[in-house]
Amino acid sequence: MNRIEKIQEFLSQQPQDNFLRHALALEYIKIGEDQKARDLFIEILTLSPDYIGSYYHLAKILEKLAMRQDAIDWYEKGMAAAKLAKDDHAYRELQGAYEELVY
Questions:
Q1: What is the C-alpha R_g of the chain?
Q2: Burial class (CB in 10 A: 0-12, 13-18, 19+), 13
Q3: pLDDT, tens digit, for every residue of 5-29?
Q4: Residue 39 near residue 16 (C-beta atoms within 8 A)
Q5: Which of 23, 57, 70, 85 has the smallest number of Cβ neighbours within 10 A?
Q6: Full set of structural domains in the chain with CATH
Q7: Which residues contact 15 (CB under 8 A, 6 or more apart)?
Q8: What DSSP string runs through 29-88?
Q9: Do 11 and 43 touch, CB atoms closer than 8 A?
Q10: Cα–Cα dist 85/102, whole Å
Q11: Do 37 and 29 form a contact (C-beta atoms < 8 A)?
């Protein structure tokens, strides 16, 4: 059983587990399934906007898919969420990627 299958098996038991869903999205990125990863990250952040770690990865995928404005929007949402959560590390990481894209 590969990693994706293992994660999907765990998700069948805990379908709303954001850690598992995030891990699955990262596995999709590794195999080039960017659309699946994007959709999963959007689902995570729509239901749990406080799941800070997914913003960076979603925006990076959007950059890769040449969806620049969408990437900018998600970086901005992520920075706002990180600031609200007082997660300075995540905020700086998002801000750095945002500035690299915008400037």
A1: 14
A2: exposed
A3: 999 999 999 999 999 999 999 999 9
A4: no
A5: 85
A6: 3-102 (1.25.40.10)
A7: none
A8: HHTT-HHHHHHHHHHHHHH-TT-THHHHHHHHHHHHTT-HHHHHHHHHHHHHHHHHHT-H
A9: no
A10: 24
A11: yes
CA distance 46 to 50: 9
Structural contact between residues 41 and 12, judged by C-beta atoms closer than 8 angstroms: no
Examine the pLDDT at 1 and tell me if it is beyond 90.
Answer: no
CB 20 within 8 A of CB 26: no
Retrieve residue 49's tokens. 């906007």
pLDDT of residue 4: 97
Cα 59 from chain centroid (whole Å): 7
Neighbours of 83 (CB within 10 A): 14
Q: How many Cα atoms sit within 13 Å of 76 on the Cβ side?
A: 7
